[in-house]
Give the backbone structure.
Amino acid sequence: MKSSDPKRRFPPPWRVEQPGPDCFEVRDANGFRLALVHFRDDLQKWSFGHSHLTSDEARRIAKAIARIPEFLMQRKGFNQRGGGLRWRPERPYHVALEDGYIRANWDVIDALCKINSVPFNATGEKISDGGLWRVYEFAWQLDAMQFWDRFEGRWLLGTEFHYPQRPNDLPPMKQPSNLPKFDPRKARR
């Protein structure tokens, strides 16, 4: 069944509000309610209450829903690769890191990608351009941008390096508390 209405838009930013004592709601920039997440804290002490969300679980789910536009928005200058030896439409964003840099900092790169749930998928493609560069693929533009920004990679358009400007509103990757402060500019020397 097709809708006769034109496509509806729900402009960002989306925000989480708690209108009552037992629910959270997600609203768009116009104030339209997009989602309602109910919880019951008083039932958790009983065996039948475990099928209900706690207030903390409901709040986290509502915050995750509110972040959907952030993950889907296209950022200027960070275009899909659109070509290359191993380009796949389901993983269109590619970032290249220098081989020596990867070998020297593998533990930090792997740990940060796991903590931030950023998939770290190598294509197996190598580019020789002022050094040996290895290519990694991403399905989500935000994951690729965070990876590119944190590890000073090179953004790929086709088989060429592209140097977009870093957006001011790019959220940083979460840092583990037990790793020393890491500066990729100092690690390459």
